Amino acid sequence: MATATVKAEGNVKAEGKRQKAETPSGFDVMKVRADFPILSERVHGKPLVYLDSANTSQKPTSVLQAMDDYYRHANANIHRATHLLSERATALYEGGRAKAARFLNAPDPRTIVLTKGTTDGINLVAQSYGRSTLKPGDEILLSWLEHHSNIVPWQLVAGQTGAAITVVPINDLGEIDQDQYAKLLSPRTKIVAIGHVSNALGTINPIKEMIAQARTHGAVVLIDGAQAAPHLPIDVQALDCDFYVLSSHKMFGPTGTGVLYGRKKLLEAMPPYQGGGDMISSVTFEKTLYNQVPYKFEAGTPNIAGVVGLGAAVDYLSTIDRAAALVHEDAVLGYATEQVRAIPGARIIGEARHKTGVLSFMLEGVHPHDAGTILDQQGVAVRTGQHCAQPVMDRYCIPATIRASLGIYNTREDIDALVRGLHKVREVFA
Questions:
Q1: Residue 388 annotated as catalytic
Q2: What is the pTM of this model?
Q3: Which of 219, 381, 388, 422 is catalytic?
Q4: Residue 335's CATH number
Q5: CA dist., res. 52 & res. 372, Å (int)
Q6: Is-contact 337 201, C-beta < 8 A?
């Protein structure tokens, strides 16, 4: 799994009813689980088994505490006042921006636009950069793996500008066809928008190589990093992408907050996306002068507490051995794949050679929604449906899948509970 397939060295052994605290990789999963208070919840009288982190991750105590501290000790608006609370709030907000820059290895915090999330960031780029530069005859290149939020904004801007959308196919494993990608790139390709990791299948795309290929044709590249952020190290300078977007709530932070990294010269040339307070330097009825980047893209009062939580999530991730965590996660994913494959009537959807975090599958004769309802009664939370990736479902000619998605806090015991629940599903539909 992941960038190099991880085998049994990351395996975790159970000790009675409690998983061994430390894997051979050195990752202490039980210590991590203790940081997430919601994991001690019971649902329908059973211990919560949370396998829906690709939808939204759970939050550690440090993130919850940071947001609570903001409201208790620094609740004020930013950039607008000289009193102490405003100074505190501004320092926390700009501190979140600086932490996001370090997380992505961005060259300058001014290349970080704080958004409502991945969807907001993609729409910003589509409507600001895309709408101001695209024209009839230009092409926007997407893949069949994309989340709806990396499809619909481009359809909107294509309709507004006369540009066309070209789609790269995927193979039966759920991987982007790299030969077709190379063939579809041309001088007409002005924007390439690709996910780093598929939310529906867990496929890790070779984005560094794909970015380099797009560059040879002069295309601008946006990477949807929502699913990569909680699992993989990200270095926007090494990737050489033009835009990179992510969501806080996928990486153990709060909802309603996200990050857009943009190449500075592109951000400076782009027109504002929205108008309002704080994105201006001067306003008269005759003319408005806009603020410098990144502030010209941050109109109105932002989600200050959310940015504080995002910064705390980055701090939390910095305390984790990310390489060891990935070994652990991928070992659990490998175990889950083996166990689900062994269930009669199970069909795994998407078996890319490089993947992480996600196991999508179906059970013969059972609609995924029915399976999800029964699993919930067993305390197991999974996502069922199209996962905002209907083209992926259409590619496999299926209506939906059951998706078990992992976080750093998941264990083999969680997978055992999932498998028991799936056998219960089979009993109900026998």
A1: yes
A2: 0.93
A3: 388
A4: 3.90.1150.10
A5: 11
A6: no
